[in-house]
Amino acid sequence: MTKRVTYFAHSANRVGRWHHLLTHLSTVSQLAGKFSSSMNWNNEAQLAGLLHDLGKFGDLFQARLRGEESGLDHWSAGAWVALEHKCAAAALAIQGHHIGLQSLAHSNLIRLNPKWFAEHTQALRLTAPDIESLKIRFADDGLTLPEVNQSVLGRTLDATIPTMLDVRMLFSTLVDADYLDTEAHFEGNASGKCYRPSGSTLDATAALELVLSSIEQTQAKTTASQDVQDVRSNLLKACLQNAAHDSGLFTLTAPTGSGKTLAMLAFALAHAAKHGLERVVMVIPYLTITEQTARIYRDVFAPTFGAEFVLEHHSMAGVGKENSQQDNEGEAGQPSYAERRRRLLAENWDAPLIVTTSVQLLESLFSNRPSACRKLHRLQRAVILFDEAQTLPAHLAVPTLAALSHLSASYGSSVVFATATQPAFSHLDKAVLETKAPGWQPHEIVPDPAALFAPMKRVEFNWDSPDTPVTWDELAGKLTQIPQALCIVNLKRHAKRLWEKLDDPATLHLSTNLCAGHRENVLKTVRERLASEQPVRLVATQCVEAGVDLDFPAVMRAWGPLDAIIQAAGRCNREGRRSQLGQLRVFTPDDTGYPTDSYQQATQIAQMIYRRHGAPGMKLDDPAFITAYYRELYDLAGVTTAPASREILKTVESGSFPDVANLYRLIKQDAINVLVPYTPQQALFDSLRAQADDTGLTATWMRAARPLSVSLYRPKDSDPIWDALLPVPVAGWKQREQNDWFIYAVPEHYHPQLGLVPPGTLNTWIG
Predict the structure, then answer these.
(1) pTM score of the predicted model
(2) Among 65, 84, 163, 505, which is most exposed with the fewest C-beta within 10 angstroms?
């Protein structure tokens, strides 16, 4: 009798146990089925799990595990078998679980046929000479494929935003299942696999009680005017009343300072409790607000639910750089299990409340990489809250709305766009429908937003003509006549120049050239001086406009987009306590300049409206006026006809996942993180530098480095700033360099007021 051969998926773990291929395929199939249990393509996800490593039945792959072979493709065989079963989405997911999703085009799919393997794009070899031998070994191990009555793509391979998102969703279930089972093997012991504990589940009712209690405590201590308190109460009431509405698309339009951060969370939890939803995802455009919001939410929930109830996931959260290479066969230099657990929770969003960035979530919806797509299945049956929704770039509006509307309609999730300046996205409904998505007609949570804005009139706007610029000397002269004033400009070089012109110890500076610890100290000083009625002038960039709780009697703001001017007004007489209205003056510096082309275009449209209607027509406390502004912006910007918009929609039609991922970028320019020598925290800097030399880059190190970190646009190779940047070595690999984290080695370049000011490198400043 022939002895039965045992095939392995992975080599020996830390206790010498090898991973049986039969067990791996069965478990991945079960997990993928579990992650897609509510979907009509559930059986296709299970089929993908069974076939994803079919090539590992080949003799060459078994030799690879013994260190005798390399340069092998173990995924294409299973992808071809999936195609034979008319499961194109499963085929793409299997093909992509190591190399990323490729293309729906026939030319890509046909290459999966073994007959075409001489043209393998990665110049790899198949693990077996023919697929039939793999099928036989698959069957001999007792494995059978499920009947697939309904597949993700059905009979058509037409590429649309909805169909590509559906493929990514199936891909997500496969990748997460594969990662989890492989990790469990390598973390296993003599008793078997060791799966990490699952994340907490959402008890929405209990969580809502904690939020309402926190709001009540805050209200009891507030010094805000009665009008402001009434608006906050009315906003919360509207959020709770409308939470019973059917799941779907929502807008939440509320003025700055109205308690939106906790009110929208109360809506999400009440809505989740009503409809049995499983998770809340808070999406924020700015990193500083992300960190601040996560702190607020942790303070509310951690004492009752523990530290893992709120999961913070962004570039500075210390979860490491996403890595598509998962099947590493137990390489040396892996991070500690505690760090890996934290990273894993973030990578598949296994937590009740996620706080993340727009870049992290939206780019994942259009990604082709396994690590980025892994978490997408967690967006099923979730409440997804977008704060400051107006920051969505215009050229990405239509594809983004199409993806989110499909996510809501097909995956049982609710999407909320919250802001004081609600974009006129309903104006794009027809364009969204043309992408084959359900369209964009959201339900407004606040029945009469204008009724919230009227009592919150805390500011009188004074408009200088955009055709009458002022010099920095003139502006400095005006500021010196105001004891307490905030001045917001559009560029960091403007902030630096104005600060230098003021030449006054009572003048402070705030921008993202300051590390987080430095910014916190500046804001603390500003608040103390405001409270004690001492002279204080703050020159800042837009980083002060969103989520920063300041209350100046007077604000000056350089001409910018109307939403930016409204955000600036939110720092003026914020609590409504003053006997007179706060004063906000909009001016034009004679040295004009803007952070981006889209920012400049929005500014020009705001100025055009001013020229048309004059100061009386600039009704910034009227939501209808803001809607009209956005409609004009979208029409003139050509949201659906501009080259950048057309290019991404055309690329979607091609079905190329890599090309779509490359085009869908919220931030075009790459950035680096730099640990800076901020003198008041010199001991922390010295400690982190020593740790970097000793242990290298770890998640723990990145989290500890956040207070002393500055982000810069990645300098050109010829930029002299590289002479001051020391790369942090990879943990466990002293000889290997990474290119995302650096230590700034010239202390003299960190100014005590202006932050990091490398000579001659202003082009690297972000913000």
Answers:
(1) 0.88
(2) 505
